[in-house]
Amino acid sequence: MVSVRKRGKVYEYRFETASIDGTRKWISKSGFSTKQEALNQGALDYNEYYRIGRVHKNKEMSYSDFLDYWVDTYCNFNLKYSTIVSYLNIIKNYLKPRLGHYSLSQITSQMLQEFINSIFVEKNLSKWYLKSIMKTIKGSLKYACYDVNFINENPAERVHIPRYETVTTDPAHIFTQEEIERILDRFKDVHYIYYAFLTAYYTGMRTSEVFALTWDCIDFERKTITVNKNIIKKNRFGKPKKYNISKGNSVEVWFYGSCKNLQSRRTITVGDTLLKALKEYKKEQEENKKFYGDSYIMHYEKQVINEYTNRPEIKIVNATAELDLDLKEAPLVFVRSNGDYRGTESTRHAFKVINYELGIPCRFHDFRDTHATRLIEQGADIKAVSKRLGHSTIMTTYNIYVRVTNKMETDTVDKFESYTNTLSIPETEDIEYQD
After folding, report:
1. How far apart are the C-alpha atoms of 406 and 418, rounded to whole Å?
2. CB of 10 within 8 A of CB of 32?
């Protein structure tokens, strides 16, 4: 039970909690001007403690402060870097400006539903992005409720995004053979772009996987490419983008990252066309090193401790060839002729050329989409395709990456026609109709 006593000019409540090592323990709070105020608050905290095992000292924390706490204590230790960056953008642009000033205890299902409805009406966002906003809200409040017990229930559980009447268009573009040839021909003299595109088209690798490739991943004898890492751009401390604006921190430092999932770590069998091209490119890269000499830019793997997560990471550092660094070399595949490495930023200008000069809708991911779709179109086993792409399930391959092309539709009709051509369809006589 709650007891109240006077301490000087103020009142204090206290109640007994679970003992530790046989010693009785108490929770108390002082500073109340009247005995009744102390008794009322003590009763609330007593009920709170025995309901869920602790006094909620954080229920009046602002949602803005809690979002920072959520990112720092959960997201940074459990989510992929790209997911964290996506959440940070949503928090900065939508959640803090509109909901951040409310305390956790003030946020209700009604408030959240009105918020998501207003965003839907005002911003004309895609269904996918609106789902991402809702996912951020639900994830943060789920953590507040079930993980750290700052609130008693998750008000986001009963909130839904509005219905979209129009079907959102698929952003993917499946290249025709003619478009692939035009793209490759346009960049035939920019070799680090040309061979990156060629590799993506022939393997279906993700952009971060392509630009993380090192020469030791390519086995010319076994005709395989091993995907065991990706490449991520962070600031020099390995912190998320929200920290880049302070202290002049560089935003273009590359780190090796882990693969998207367990299945993404894979070995891909490749054909002679790509292998022959990569052999030529490797030979050219070695000649470039000789040509540039001491001014050729070398890259090295430096193990560092991420100051934010306290975990070890591999950071890519560079130096001219004349400097002898006591670090393991990072033999990155897709670099400029002088060795300069731009990671996934390398293709930014190239895609502007493809879109505006060649008039071909294009994202790097379209090479992956095209690779998967053409394999299925040619009758490849879906399980083999799924494994090649590094998907966790076959349904991911079907639902996201494999699009129905005109050829697939025509083949489907032809197969049905072949199945039913034994049916005897009676011939009809011409009938003349008179007015």
Report:
1. 18
2. yes
Cβ-contact 131, 86 below 8 angstroms: no
What CA–CA distance (Å, rounded) separates 293 from 76?
41
Question: Could you read off the pLDDT of 56-86 as tens digits, one per residue?
Answer: 556 678 999 999 999 988 998 888 888 888 8
Of the candidates 419, 385, 390, the residue with the CA atom closest to the CA atom of residue 402: 385
Tell me how far apart the alpha carbons of residues 95 and 67 are, in angstroms, rounded to a whole number: 9
Residues facing 317 on adjacent strands? 300
Residue ranges of domains in the chain, CATH in brackets: 3-52 (no CATH), 63-158 (1.10.150.130), 208-344 (no CATH)
Structure-model confidence comparison of residues 184 and 5, the more confident one: 184
Alpha helices in 207-318 (DSSP H): 207-210, 272-292
Secondary structure class of 26 (helix, strand, coil): strand
The span from the CA of 83 to the CA of 67, in Å, is: 15
Q: What is the pLDDT of residues 356-397, one digit of tens each?
A: 999 998 889 899 989 988 888 888 888 898 999 998 888 877
Closest CA to 95 of 39, 55, 135: 135
What is d(CA 339, CA 290) in angstroms, rounded to the nearest whole number? 11
Under 8 Å between Cβ of 308 and 238: yes
Q: How far apart are CA 282 and CA 284, in angstroms?
A: 5
pLDDT at residue 415 above 80?
no
Lowest mean per-residue pLDDT among 176-180, 241-245, 408-412: 241-245
Q: Element (H or E) spanning 142, and its range? A: helix 127-142
Helix (H) or strand (E) holding 319: strand 312-320
* Residue keyed to tokens 């009105």: 114
| pLDDT of 50 strictly over 80 | no
Distance of CA 86 to the CA centre of its chain: 7
The secondary structure of residue 148, as a DSSP letter, is S
177-186, 191-200, 348-357, 369-378: least confidently modelled range: 369-378
Question: Burial of 105 by CB count in 10 Å (0-12 exposed, 13-18 middle, 19+ buried)?
Answer: middle
d(CA 150, CA 341): 46
Helix H or strand E encompassing 136: helix 127-142
Structure tokens at 38: 């102390």
Q: Structure pTM?
A: 0.71
Per-residue burial over 314-329, b if 16 or more Cβ lie within 10 Å, else e, is bbbbbeeeeeeeeeee
In angstroms, the CA 379 to CA 393 distance is 19
β-strands 230-234, 253-257: how paired?
A: antiparallel
